[in-house]
Amino acid sequence: MEETISLKELFQTLRKRMWLILSLTVIAALASGIISFFVLTPVYSASTQLLVNQARGEQPMYNPSEIQTNLQLINTYNVIIKSPAILELVQQELDLDSSVEALNSKISVGSQKDSQVVAITVQDPDPYMAADIANTTASVFKREITDIMSVNNVSILAKAVVKENPTPVKPQPLLNIAIAIVVGLMAGVGLAFLLEYLDNTIKHEQDIERILELPVLGAITTMEAEKHSPRKRREKAEVRGESIGSQG
């Protein structure tokens, strides 16, 4: 006989294990909040922009072929910016204790589609250090690209600056807490159904019919011992007899 589970049974299972679901959700939210606010180190971001422009010459000011060539060079520039040839000079100028690999992991380079603007973004626990690394990387790249590729078509559009009250880009406590609440709810619901599945005790007449596949002919109800025990009845009778004798 194939077993079927109704929506009513599902809701009953959730209601019965509601304390477990809520407990896991609250614990997950509290743990995420504590870790986000007190354990994780805030990380700040700073960005600078480079313009890969066309070389001025006798050709028209806006030459489509030169613009397309510059767009193709951007991918090459993105690789060169994060190469040891550039980052080693940045490390020396800023007198950084971190290795080139660690410096590379802090820097990300990207450009918008069909755009000649390259953005250098640096993330660091110190907002001022992040800005210094971004600006130094841009200036070193602009200076060294002339010798590396014999071109002079890079200019700095905007330098990285630190705002008065910088806001960290990560961690994001509210987002982390929201994710933890969702994960806690999912874990609680899953654990509730798992416990219900592993619980093989018989609680109702319907469980007997489901397991034995036989109809229930009768059921014995639970009787309270205090109301129906002979000793209690005798005690009550003696109390009533004493009360009647005292009245007479």
From TrEMBL:
InterPro entries reported for this sequence: Bact_polysacc_biosynth/exp, GNVR, LPS_length_determ_N
Domain Polysaccharide chain length determinant N-terminal: 3-94
Ranges where the Tyrosine-protein kinase G-rich domain occurs: 143-194
Membrane topology summary: Multi-pass membrane protein
Regions crossing the membrane: 20-40, 174-195
Compartments reported by the entry: Cell membrane
Region of interest: Disordered: 225-248
Coiled-coil stretches noted in the UniProt entry, renumbered to this chain: none
Record's GO cellular component terms: plasma membrane
Annotated keywords: Cell membrane, Membrane, Transmembrane, Transmembrane helix
One Gene Ontology term of the molecular function aspect: protein tyrosine kinase activity
UniProt family annotation: Belongs to the CpsC/CapA family.
Protein name in UniProt: Capsular biosynthesis protein
Organism of provenance: Cytobacillus depressus
Record lineage: Bacteria, Bacillati, Bacillota, Bacilli, Bacillales
